[in-house]
Amino acid sequence: MKSLYNDAEAKKYKIDLDLRVYTSRLLGADTSLVLHGGGNTSVKSTATDSCGDVVDVLLVKGSGWDLETIKAEGFASVRMDALLKMAELKELSDKDMVKGQRAAMIDQSAPNPSVEAILHAIIPFKFVDHTHADAVVTITNTQNGEEKIKELFGEKVLIIPYIMPGFVLAKLVYEMTRDVDWNSLEGIVLMNHGLFTFSDDAKISYEKTIELVDMAENYLFKRGAVLDIQNQSTTADLLELAKIRKEVSLIKESSIISVLNDSKEAIYFSKQNIEKIAIKGPLTPDHVIRTKRVPVILTDEFEKELQNFVEDYKQYFLENKKDEILLNPAPNFAILKGKGSLSFGKNAKEANIIKDINNHSFEAILKAEKLGGYKALGQKEIFEVEYWSLEQAKLKKSSDELEYGGKIVIIVDAVDEKAREKAFELSKKGAVVIAIDTNCEVEKIFSTGDIIGVKCDTDSDEDIKSLISFVVKSFGGIDMLIADKLQYKKLAEECTPFLELS
Ligand SMILES: [Zn+2]
C-alpha cells in the first residue's frame, strides 16, 4: 500500500480542518481501508463559542458522512472538556451520549458527531485516523488472531479485545491507556474491528495507517494468504434471477433491486465450501446493518431456502433480543451456489453498497481461510450492533419511501422529448429507468443521474437479448415496458415473462 499524500497539494490547506478534510479523503479513496461511511477521522483545534470565548474542540466526522467525499461541513465541532468528562463517567447510555455531545457542539446545525467521538478525544494527539482496513481485519478475524497481530506489530500497537463501538469502547481504551506512554505507540488495533493511528502531524498520522496496513498486507503475502483466481465461467438463468427477486420482494413487502455479482472472485467464492465459510458472520460489525449477519445460500430450491432463512432469522432474533423489535427477516444478500452472489436493496445504490461490502468480505474470508481459518464475532455481538439504535439511525436518514422505489422500467424512443420527460418523471419517483433508443444520442442524454441510456435496435434479436440480460443482471427484473406493444412486438415478447413476475 502506497501513501497518496502530496506535499504540494497539502500546502494549500492552511487551516486544521481543511488539512483534515484532505487526508480524510485520501483514506476514503482506498476502498480497502474504508467503505461507504465506514471509519472516522478527527482533528483537535480551537473555535470561538457563542460568548466569544476561544475553546478547545474536537472536529470529528459527522455520523452518516463518507470519508471519500467528506467536506468541512461533514465535521462536527464538539467541546473537548465535555468529551473528556464523559470519558470519566462510569456509565453513559446511548441517548445521554448523543444528547451530551449535541449540547457540547459549537454549531448546532452540524451533523451528529461520530459514535467514536469520545475515543478520538482521549487520544492525546492532534490528528486521529480510524479505518476498517481489510488486511488488518483479515488477520484479527482468524483463529489466534491476537497472537498474529502481536507477532506482526510487536510493541508498536496497543491491542484492544473486541467490544461494542461507542461509549464502552472509549471507556475500555481510556482504562487500558491510563499508564501507557502514548509516544511509544504507533497505533491501536481493535480486534474484529479496525485500526487507529495518530500524530500531531496530519501526514504522519495518515502515513502511519498506510505503513501499518502495508505491513499487514506483506504479512498475508508471506504466509501464503493470497488469491490467484483464474477466469470463472457460469451462466445465470435470467428468469430464475427475476423469480428470486420476486420472492425476496414478497418477504420485504416492497419491490427491491437485486444486483448479480458474477465477477470471477464472486463465482470462485460461491464454488467454495460456502455452507461453512460464508455463514460465519461479517468482517466488521458495522457491516451488519447493510448485509445482515449471514447470507442465504441459494440453489434450484430457492423458495424453500428463502423460507428457511426467514425462520432462522426469527430464531436468531428470539435468542438474542431484549426489548428490540424484529427487523424485516428477509436476507440482504445471497450466495448463488456456483454462480456468484446477489445483493438486495430498496434501490440500486443500497444494493450496490452491499455488493461492494461483499467483494471485500469474500476476499478477506478466503485469505483468512488460508491463514488458519476465518473467525467472525459471535451471534450475540453481531446482534447488539445490528439492533443498536445508533446504527439503525444511520439507515433511517436514507429510507424515504418513493412511489416507484425498487421498480425497474424500460422506456423506448427515449430521445423523443415526451419519452424523455416520462423517464425523468419516473426516475424522480424512485424507479430505475433504462432509456433506450436506436439513436446513440441516448447515451449522452442520460449519461448522468439515475437513468441509464442504452443504444438498442429494437429490430435486432441480439440487441434485445443483450438489453434484457443487462437489465436483469444489474437490477433483478423488469416491471414496466413503456412502448407500443404492436410496434415493438419483439421487445414486448421477450420482456413479457419478466413483466409477469412483477
Ligand atoms: Zn470503526
Please give the structural blueprint.
Elements: H1 7-11, H2 16-28, E1 40-48, E2 54-61, E3 75-79, H3 80-88, H4 94-103, H5 117-122, E4 127-131, H6 134-140, H7 145-153, E5 157-160, H8 167-176, E6 187-190, E7 194-199, H9 202-222, H10 238-252, E8 257-261, H11 264-270, H12 274-277, H13 288-291, E9 296-298, H14 302-320, E10 333-336, E11 340-345, H15 348-370, H16 379-386, H17 389-396, E12 408-411, H18 417-428, E13 432-437, H19 441-445, E14 451-455, H20 461-475, E15 480-482, H21 489-499
Helix pairs in contact: 6-9, 6-15, 10-14, 20-21
The chain binds zinc ion.
Zinc ion (ZN) binds next to loops.
Compute the number of helices: 21
Percentage of residues in strands: 15-25%
Q: How many structural domains are formed by the residues? A: 3
Q: Structural class, from secondary structure content?
A: alpha/beta
Radius of gyration: 24 Å
Could you give a short account of the major beta sheet? 7 strands, mixed
Distance between the termini: 46 Å
CATH class of the largest domain: Alpha Beta
Give the names of the bound compounds. Answer: zinc ion
Side by side, the strands of the main sheet go 3-2-1-4-7-6-5
Mean pLDDT: 94
CATH architecture of the largest domain: 3-Layer(aba) Sandwich
Helix content: 40-55%
Flag low-confidence runs.
none
* CATH H level, superfamily name of the largest domain: Class II aldolase/adducin N-terminal domain
Number of strands: 15
